[in-house]
Design goal:
53% of the residues lie in helices and 11% in strands. It is α+β, with helices and mostly antiparallel strands. It folds into 2 domains: 114 residues, Beta Polymerase, domain 2 (2-Layer Sandwich); 117 residues, no CATH class. A 5-stranded mixed sheet has the order 1-2-5-4-3, sandwiched between helices. A hairpin with a 6-residue loop joins strand 3 and strand 4. Helix 6 crosses helix 7. The two termini are 25 Å apart. This is Poly(A) RNA polymerase mitochondrial-like central palm domain-containing protein. One of its GO terms (biological process) is RNA 3'-end processing.
Length: 265
Amino acid sequence: MNRPHAIAAAADNQVLESTLLYILSCINPVAEDRLRRQRTLDDLALLIRNVPTFKDTTIRPFGSFVSGIYSKWGDLDISLDLPTNSNAADSNTKKLKLRALRKLMHVVKNRSFGIHVEFIPSARVPILKFKSRRYNIECDISVDNHVGLSKSTFLLWITQKDKRIHDLVLLIKEWAKAHKINDPKSRTLNSYSLCLLVIFHLQTCEPAILPPLREIFGFTNLCDVIGIERTSQRYMHAYMASIASYRSSNRSSLSKLLISFFEKV
């Protein structure tokens, strides 16, 4: 590339970088956004506390709220964790989950907790959707979603390694939503798949920003991540230390990483 073209390319990259940073400043949540989600969780826990059906039942967030990769308008994924004795692996397990979600739907409606309430029992993972009336937060509730909890923890650890990872994932998710290719109900990519695409890109760019995950976590199959969320604190700290110890010489700007992502996919 001759010098004039190189200067023009550099200027274009600076414009793109500034634009991306501006977009991030618009979509990144602030303290109030996180507080609204936490208060929604607290209110939901209070709502079900005195419902006999949900005795000894707890709720836990997962998804983007836990991984930290959510926008101001991102939804809130919640796992309704049934008592241990209700989680037996038998033919009644799905019926128990559907019954719990159906009961919760009635509670949410009758107590005017949410609006636009929709129960989707036929989904691969049955889900109850609604928008909290008080805080205007979209909520997706499933039952005993330990896999979702594990994946969220996994992404949190990865994105804490390098701010560029968090920012790139958030930008790709917003781009996918804008182009209507981030909706599994429409047979397009879910958010977790988009996160994995970004991770793959950062493992295969030159030089790599992330190593193969087995070098960090010690597993050879990503399905093994399912058990991570419930491992002991000792192993959790060990995993986090492994991520922190990895060093990359790649100092590419966010704009350059975004461009190379689209060139690769």
